[in-house]
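Practice problem 4.
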């Protein structure tokens, strides 16, 4: 057996082992949880929800802000323009729940090149409590969301996040987005968190005001185009950990366009490459494509049937993803295996695309990444 065959066999074995270990970790962390007792975590909390435009299921996701069972929670919706089409919807929701302390803040504070950060600054400044949850408008907040976020806090914690879990895909492209979000990105995020290397996710973030104020306040997150990358670096310098809540919150997707799914993944990949290049480098090997190629090469080198080897490894690889999806209660359909395979075929292309450009468009804003994730 040649050295190349040995190396191919070792790589395929190690990659498959890492895949299975990460699946096991995510299965333990992402299973549905019983309703958390809100009375155990009675600290008053401000929920800041930036809104912009009419997304799929936006009325349903924003309405969950009013069904939280936390005993003391104020809600601040933030919008950049009073002419935004989402404004009447937010106003109707507030009027429908007069017993909840909620208001809409309008204004665009140009503190950075990040339009989302510019939108939430006024909410941070107006927050009446020291615990502040920032949650995107397309997140479904479970009734015990605040209790679960507070319950994940530890003395060495600087931030608790919930990455988004894709739910309710209406077509193949929604399934593809679920394949990227759920059994790929969420899985690796929980593995990183479990081994003590967690990083921030901007979809849902629980802050303690004094933690961020010590680093310069909410405006300090404008140091990079992605506020979650800036948060990760700020907390690392402070010696504090980012933790993830168990059983992450869901994001209903609805119908998707292939180009939108692809552009979103390119944007995130370019931001990861710019902000954390050392961690981004091995991403090209994180899917099934190269382990399967290596297994085929090794099988041919020792005279084992290639098709049988590759088929067995693919069944084992994607069977593990199937078990994770079932255990976590995530969307699963006949299109899911096709979406997983398509995702893994696209991962090397996505990795190359991330290195080839610095530009992307986010909600109509053309942006360019400079070194270390800063805006150009």
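Answer key:
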């Amino acid at each position: 057996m040649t050295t190349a065959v040995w190396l191919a066999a070792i790589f395929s074995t190690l990659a498959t082992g890492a895949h299975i270990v990460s699946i096991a970790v995510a299965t333990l962390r992402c299973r549905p949880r019983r309703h958390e007792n809100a009375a155990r975590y009675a600290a008053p909390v401000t929920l800041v929800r930036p809104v912009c435009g009419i997304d799929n299921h936006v009325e349903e996701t924003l309405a969950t802000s009013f069904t939280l069972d936390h005993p003391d929670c104020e809600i601040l919706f933030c919008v950049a323009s009073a002419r935004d089409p989402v404004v009447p919807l937010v106003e109707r929701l507030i009027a429908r729940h007069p017993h909840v302390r909620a208001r809409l803040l309008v204004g665009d504070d140009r503190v950075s090149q990040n339009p989302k950060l510019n939108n939430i600054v006024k909410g941070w400044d107006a927050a009446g409590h020291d615990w502040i949850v920032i949650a995107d408008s397309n997140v479904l907040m479970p009734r015990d969301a605040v209790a679960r976020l507070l319950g994940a806090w530890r003395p060495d914690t600087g931030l608790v996040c919930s990455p988004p879990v894709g739910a309710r895909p209406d077509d193949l492209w929604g399934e593809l987005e679920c394949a990227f979000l759920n059994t790929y990105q969420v899985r690796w995020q929980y593995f990183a968190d479990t081994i003590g290397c967690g990083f921030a996710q901007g979809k849902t973030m629980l802050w303690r005001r004094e933690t961020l104020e010590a680093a310069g306040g909410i405006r300090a997150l404008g140091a990079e185009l992605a506020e979650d990358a800036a948060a990760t670096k700020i907390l690392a310098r402070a010696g504090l950990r980012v933790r993830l809540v168990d059983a992450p919150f869901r994001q209903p997707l609805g119908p998707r366009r292939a180009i939108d799914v692809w552009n979103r993944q390119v944007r995130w990949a370019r931001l990861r490459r710019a902000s954390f290049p050392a961690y981004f480098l091995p991403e090209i090997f994180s899917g099934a494509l190269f382990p399967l190629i290596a297994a085929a090469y090794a099988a041919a080198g020792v005279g084992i049937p290639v098709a049988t080897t590759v088929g067995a490894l693919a069944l084992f690889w994607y069977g593990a993803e199937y078990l994770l999806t079932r255990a976590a209660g995530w969307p699963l359909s006949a299109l899911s295996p096709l979406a997983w395979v398509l995702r893994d075929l696209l991962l090397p292309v996505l990795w190359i695309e991330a290195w080839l450009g610095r530009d992307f468009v986010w909600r109509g804003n053309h942006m360019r990444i400079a070194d270390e994730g800063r805006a150009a």
